[in-house]
Design goal:
A hairpin with a 2-residue loop joins strand 12 and strand 13. This protein is of the alpha/beta class. The longest helix has 31 residues. Helix 2 packs antiparallel against helix 6. It has 4 domains: 192 residues, 3-Layer(aba) Sandwich (Rossmann fold), CATH 3.40.50.300; 156 residues, no CATH class; 117 residues, no CATH class; 157 residues, 3-Layer(aba) Sandwich (Rossmann fold). It has a 6-stranded mixed beta sheet, with helices on both faces. The chain has a 5-stranded antiparallel beta sheet with strand order 4-1-6-7-8, with helices on one face. Strands 10, 11, 12 and 13 form a 4-stranded antiparallel beta sheet that branches.
């Protein structure tokens, strides 16, 4: 198994410790994925904590691993708890600790240090391939710098009025790079320059497709690098074309400030991005090596999702405003279709007439929309299939959604669909989501009703597992949390000095927090009932027992089983722990709770305590041997209830619980009978 974690040292209010009268750097760890392996990664993690505890700080630490051209820590990343020099050097580390199928207890880490510098453990391999890659990329960057600088000067000096020299120069440069560094590639990039009037033309898209195909196949550059280079190629050509258009329609010469703006927006914009690749080549190489070895990306892409809901009004726009429309901008990017083409056709229609111009464009766009709809349906995974259509009227453009043959009105759709629609066209539309990626969300669903919050949580969990991505949410919403999903919780709390710590497992005897009290405070609902009245509550020793027993609620068909809830206790070391445990139990359920433990020291100590303590005499203490035939269960631990199918727990109890729908058919009848007997005993014991 493999586990992915994030460690923070001297980052804001994380990773500090008291040291006499002062402070020193420490390390605080957030567990992200408990099963970080191909086919097994993905899930929902909920960060909860009081306001100011540090939930958003933890999200921002993860967001620092997003693909960005600015790697430096910002002012607020430096702690204000201590001004000691050692405490003013933030470090954040993304790690994968591998065992079993990946390797033998080996840890791989990428650390971001002060100044935005990345370091690696173990060190990135410096293979011949990586040297060749870096050499080629350096040459590619140099050529792009030259292109931007020389062409900008030439363009202004000679008053060029068409974009063909730029297309020709770009084509020649990339051919030269490929010939010089990939001698095994004999084919040049051949395109019909005369047809490249628009960057969105078919010839231009074919050109970009060939660039991506040949470079990716021979250099193994990351998709992120290729995508960014493509975007910048596009912006260069668009900038030249816009300038040419202004030249044709203007009778005066360009001013000096126009030249400066041109250089700043094109030359330096591209230069900074490409320089980022050059300076952080080792970062991408390390990720590439890890992915080639383990078939999953250690960091992947990190998407910071800020929900800006779309409404039915957003599904239409005047043609003069489509460039400013979030929805239509996302839609045309998903189609790889240049909005400038749409605007140009409308301008032509307005000047010359002929509505057929718009109808031809409409037909062309609608022929490409099924690809976007297929991607949308695949990610949403609904029995109902959605289709999309564009309608171009004389002044407006309309985006139509259909479910089967029925027209869809957004406000009438289910919460899960609306949220996914917002997430798709606000984040996922470019098809770049891959296994191992991370989506961060700060306070989602705050404006949703209680049923909608519950529906959203179910959707996010299902989406994350199906797509093998991690969704990390900071939340105060109590209805995003369920007693059946305590494994998703990470509790953030602060001490008296404002130093934050994280409990990665919710147990009643949590390391830093007063479990139930802190959860209620974190959700701002101190009087909130965690479970509904009349439910049957069972307290078990570990998260493993909690995960397994909660999973079997989805396997067994027993009347009343969904009214049973399990809570993990944690490690009992001293009598003070037992007293704290009883207080926590009374906060959750005062009427005949049951404690179910393996036979051992903890069981005997708790049983004795409950017999002596008058307030705890209503607590029923049981072990597995009192529930199951002793002859068939030799040591009375929960794992021994799996008779011939112990491999179901090969990847741990967290994986078992979250993937029980696909695992349950492999469970033997004897195993089912053992757990069926436990649940029936629980129901009978509590009812008595």
């Amino acid at each position: 198994m493999a586990e992915r974690t994030l460690s923070m040292e001297a980052f804001r209010n994380f990773g500090l410790a008291k040291d006499g009268d002062g402070f020193k750097p420490s390390s605080e760890t957030l567990i992200l994925d408990r099963n970080f392996e191909p086919g097994k990664a993905g899930g929902l993690v909920l960060l909860i904590g009081e306001n100011g505890a540090g939930k958003s700080n933890a999200l921002d630490a993860v967001n620092h691993f997003a693909w960005t051209t600015d790697n430096r820590f910002i002012d607020k990343d430096y702690t204000i708890i201590s001004w000691n020099t050692e405490c003013r050097r933030p470090r954040i580390t993304m790690s994968c600790t591998c065992a079993g199928s990946l390797s033998n207890k080996q840890k791989f880490s990428i650390t971001k240090e002060n100044g935005g510098v990345f370091s690696f453990s173990p060190e990135a391999e410096n293979s011949a391939t990586s040297v060749k890659q870096k050499d080629l990329k350096d040459r590619l960057f140099s050529n792009f710098f030259t292109l931007c600088q020389i062409e900008a000067d030439t363009f202004l000096e000679n008053r060029y009025t068409n974009s063909r020299p730029i297309e020709t120069r770009l084509n020649d440069i990339l051919n030269d790079v490929i010939r010089a560094h990939c001698k095994d590639l004999s084919a040049d990039f051949k395109i019909d320059i005369s047809s490249c009037v628009y960057p969105g033309s078919e010839a231009y898209k074919e050109f970009l497709k060939q660039v991506q195909s040949q470079i990716m196949s021979s250099l193994k550059l990351s998709t992120q690098e290729i995508d960014r280079i493509k975007e910048r190629i596009w912006s260069v050509i668009r900038e030249y074309m816009d300038f040419a258009h202004r030249q044709e329609s203007s009778m005066y010469d360009p001013h000096k400030d126009m030249y400066e703006r041109f250089v700043n927006e094109v030359y330096y914009k591209i230069g900074n991005d490409l320089r980022f690749f050059a300076e952080n080549d080792q970062f991408f190489q390390y990720r590439t090596n890890f992915k080639e070895r383990f078939n999953i990306d250690l960091v992947g892409k990190v998407f910071e999702y800020k929900s800006e809901p779309f409404s039915d009004k957003d599904l239409e726009s005047r043609w003069t405003n489509i460039s400013n429309s979030r929805l239509f901008s996302a839609l045309f990017k998903a189609l790889s279709y240049d909005i400038a083409i749409v605007e140009d056709r409308y301008q032509t229609y307005k000047q010359l007439g002929g509505y057929g111009i718009l109808k031809d464009l409409q037909e062309d766009i609608n022929q490409k929309l099924p690809k976007v709809a297929n991607d949308f349906n695949k990610l949403y995974n609904s029995p109902s299939k959605y289709s999309f259509e564009i309608d171009l009227s004389k002044d407006e453009i309309h985006f139509l959604i259909r479910k089967g043959n029925q027209r869809v009105v957004l406000k009438n759709e289910a919460t899960g669909f609306i949220y996914f629609f917002n997430m798709y066209f606000g984040l996922l539309y470019d098809g770049s989501l891959k296994p191992g990626d991370i989506i961060t969300m700060d306070e989602p669903a705050t404006n949703l009703s209680v049923p909608a919050q519950k529906e959203l949580r179910a959707f996010l969990k299902d989406f994350a597992i199906r797509n093998q991505v991690l969704i990390l949410c900071a939340t105060h919403c109590p209805f995003l949390i369920s007693p059946d999903n305590l494994d998703e919780l990470r509790i953030v709390s602060c001490d008296e000095n404002g130093i934050a710590s994280i409990d990665n497992e919710y147990t009643l005897l949590s390391k830093h927090s007063k479990a139930t009290v802190d959860v209620k405070r974190a959700l701002t609902i101190e009087n909130y009932q965690i479970i509904k009245p009349g439910s049957k509550v069972v307290f078990v020793e570990s998260m493993e027992e909690y995960n397994i027993l909660t999973a079997f609620k989805k396997v067994l068909d027993i009347e009343g089983i969904n009214d049973i809830y399990f809570f993990p206790i944690g490690k009992v070391d001293e009598d003070e722990d037992i007293a704290k445990l009883m207080d926590e139990i009374r906060r959750i359920n005062k009427q005949n709770p049951i404690i179910l433990l393996p036979n051992g020291t903890a069981f005997k100590r708790i049983e004795d305590y409950c017999q002596k303590d008058a307030k705890s005499r209503n607590v029923l203490v049981r072990n597995y041997s009192s529930f199951i035939n002793k002859k068939s269960i030799p040591d009375h631990s929960i794992r021994t209830l799996f008779v011939t199918d112990s491999l179901c727990l090969k990847y741990g109890s967290y994986y078992f619980k979250n993937h029980i729908p696909s695992i349950k058919d492999s469970l033997s009848d004897k195993t089912r009978d053992n757990f069926r007997e436990i649940f029936k005993k629980i129901l009978n014991d509590i009812d008595e």
